[in-house]
Each structure stands twice: as C-alpha cells, then as structure tokens.
Amino acid sequence: MIQVAVVVVVAVAAALQALSGIGFALVAGPLLILALGQADGVRLAVALSLLLNATILAGTFRHARWGDAARLFVPAALLVWPAALITGRLRGGWVLAFAGVAVLAGVALIVSGRRAHWVDRPAGAVAAGGASGVLNVLAGVSGPPVALLVAHRGWEPRVATATLQAYSLPLNAVTLTVLGPPTGRPAHFAGAILALLAGAAVAWPFAHRIGPGTVRAIALAMATVGALSLLARAAT
C-alpha cells in the first residue's frame, strides 16, 4: 500500500513541477520521508528531483538565466555539508519535526506574496540560495526560497521554469554526493522513476494551458497535508 501511495504522489508531484517549475519535492518529500524514514526519504526525493531537473532542462535550457542560477547555486552548495553535519547529529523525531516546519514555512512564504526591496539586490540571491541549500538537506525541499525570489523578480513562466532547473540540478547533485545515494530496494526506486517520467510526460503538453494559480494551489495544499503528517509522526 505504501509503495502504491509513493508512486501516485511521485507522479502527481512530477506533473506539478512540469507545469510550474517547482513543487516536486514540496509535495513528494514529506510522503517519502514518512514511508522510508528521514535519511532515505530525503535521498530519494533529491535523486528523483535531480532526474526531473535534467529531463525538464533538456527541453527548456535556451530560456535559462544561467548567471542567476549560478548566483543562487554558490551559497546553497556552500551550506549543504554543514547542514548535513548538523542534521546527522539530531534525533530522528527532531529531524522529522524540523522537516515538517521547513515545508510549512516554505508554503507560508509562497502564500504570503510579501515583497522586500532587498530581495531584488545581490543579497537576495545569497539569502535565497543559502536557505534553499539547508532546506534541501533537511527535507529535500529546495524550492520555496528561490520561488519567492522568482516571484519578486517577475520572470515569465518559461524563464522561471528553465532557470530553476538550471539551479536545482547541480544543487541536487551536490546534496546527493554529501548525503549518499538512496539505499532502499531497487524495485521501489525503479517504480518511483517510472512514475516520475509518466507524470512529467502527461503534464508537459498542458504546461501552457493550466493557470499557474491552479497548479500552485494544488501543490501547496498537498505540501501542507504532508508537512502536518510529518509533525504528527514526530509527535508520536
């Protein structure tokens, strides 16, 4: 039953990312952590995100803002190892709780729509990248801080989608190098990969037909449910 739930959520999360540029780890991460534990759940979320980044970027790389992607990547990559070191020393319940809070904080940031002028300056990219790198290690969720930055800068959807993949792909590669590969059953990993590709393939033709508000609402609702589940698991 858990494997079926993982496959369904991975497919839906992949479709959401194909439509909006972010959302995969925000939706799939909490369930993967619940199903596999914090360590393997995060590793699998990051590994699947890496594959999805490469798949989407292959068709959108011409629209990527590579300079902006690099400015986000450097501070994020620098904080991956320290974040992994600290997380590795915490008890499992605390890590689950922090992961749940991290996802809820990301949802709140995106929903708030708040604007701050400093975010448009170089410090904005440093702060967004650093926070994204830490959240990627904690819960496999790197998207919310950079999504907030993109919203501030008003990039058109195809540019935002391509640039976020150009940033996330190397970040996920670095994170996976530090954390190590998933250690679960190969059959489970293969099933998740097939679900990932199927979800992205089904959604891709509709990328310019479904409003970003609808996609965002679905992703945020599912992420909130997943985060609350993590907090409930941590409490028990």
TrEMBL record:
Domain of life, per lineage: Bacteria
Membrane topology: Multi-pass membrane protein
Transmembrane stretches, start-end: 41-60, 72-88, 94-111, 123-142, 187-207, 213-232
Pfam families, per the entry: TauE (PF01925)
Keywords assigned: Cell membrane, Membrane, Transmembrane, Transmembrane helix, Transport
Key word Cell membrane present: yes
Chief location bin: membrane
InterPro entries: TM_pro_TauE-like (IPR002781), TSUP (IPR052017)
Localization terms from the record: Cell membrane
Family affiliation: Belongs to the 4-toluene sulfonate uptake permease (TSUP) (TC 2.A.102) family.
Protein name as it appears in the record: Probable membrane transporter protein
Organism field: Paractinoplanes rhizophilus
